[in-house]
Amino acid sequence: MRHYLSFSDMSPEETRGVLRRAREMKRDRGKGAGRPLDGEHWAMLFAKASTRTRVSFEIGLRELGAGVVFMSGDQLQLGRGEPIEDTARVLGRMFHGAVIRTFAQSDLETFARHSGIVTVNALTDAEHPCQILADIFTIEELRGPITGQRIAFIGDGACNVPASWILAARAFGFRLTIAAPRGYQPAPELVRGSDVRVTESVEEAALGADVLYSDVWVSMGKEAEAQRRLADLNGYQINRELHALAAPGALVMHCLPAYRGKEITDEMLEAHAPTIFAQAENRLHVQKALIAQLCEWRRARR
Ligand code: CP
Ligand code: NVA
To answer: Do 159 and 266 belong to one domain?
Structure first.
């Protein structure tokens, strides 16, 4: 059974297929398109907060025809120590698929292995693949093929969002530069053998970039380190001066939620709001296309 636990769980050709299908689904939304998940029920298991991911998956699954049950980690017996393996086997007997947001990637993998149902990564500490699918979709909608474009990620280069960006750069051959201070750079094994550049210099990353991309400095689960992170990442900000170094008309993107005055200025966020909120909306379309594809593979027993 095919799951989507990592950006690299689909080949570049398969990812292309999902992005194409997402374009059709966006165009045809509300026009009475098919409901391939009619009669199914999907579980949404979230151990961390969420606005965009939760609503885009819930609405998307309903539009595909599925019933949805949302569960937050602390309301389940899982939160009181029931093993993931047992939770997975119970849910796998009632649901047809699961969308999971949690901490450890290994917990997501354990769930997928033991549940026997299609499982989708809605963010872990290691990756946020559905976000990057939507981001690539947005860039291509606004600027055409991503291959050959220059993307600069500015900020905490060691968290989930840049990790999925690195896997995407390996797959699609665009030029990715990550500007992050020491201690916040991606794990060397993630970057090794790729063309991804890692630098401490925000200016070097931004120079001539087609896209400046930002994420929070304090990811979920890192709240205890907030003070140190705010000090260490100070300066890794998308602001007017940095944007002036990028290619003329460069896009500014943010996965949201945004902390104005920290990783991005209010001025930059508002000036680029149409792009940034398109990213959020496109989560819906790409995730619908992804789930429809995963369900086709399941039916074909791939
Ligand atoms: N970008 C994103 O995943 O947002 P949420 O945390 O609100 O789901
Ligand atoms: N890196 C962030 C992404 C939020 C969508 C986090 O993990 O909190």
So the answer is: yes
**Active-site residue identified among 3, 21, 131, 279:** 131
Q: Residue 160 in contact with residue 144, Cβ under 8 Å?
A: no
* 278, part of any domain: no
Residue 6 CA to residue 14 CA, distance in Å, equals 13
> Is 298 marked active-site?
no
Mean pLDDT in residue range 3-22:
98
86 and 207 housed in the same domain: no
101 as an active site residue: the answer is yes
State the pLDDT at residue 120.
99
Confidence of residue 22 (pLDDT cuts 50, 70, 90): very high
| CB half-sphere exposure, 257, CA atoms < 13 A | 7
35 part of the active site:
no
| pTM of the predicted structure, to 2 decimals | 0.98
- Mapped onto helix, strand or coil, the DSSP state of residue 252 is strand
Q: Ligand 1 atom 4: the closest Cα is on which residue?
A: 52
Q: How far apart are CA 166 and CA 175, in angstroms?
A: 10
Ligand 1 pocket list (CB less than 6 A): 50-53, 123, 131, 255-257
Residue type present at position 80: R
Position 302 pLDDT exceeds 70: no
Which of 3, 52, 101, 272 is labelled catalytic? 101
Residues 266 and 171 reside in one and the same domain: yes
Q: Cα separation of 111 and 92, whole Å?
A: 9
* Candidate list 125, 156, 210, 215, residue with the active-site label: 215
pLDDT digits (tens, 9 = 90+) for 163-202: 999 999 999 999 999 999 999 999 999 999 999 999 999 9
- Which atom from ligand 1 is nearest to the alpha carbon of 49? 6
215 is catalytic: yes
Do 142 and 239 share a domain, yes or no? yes
Closest-lying ligand 2 atom to the alpha carbon of residue 255: 5
C-alpha 171, offset from chain centre: 15
β-pair partners for 99? 44, 120
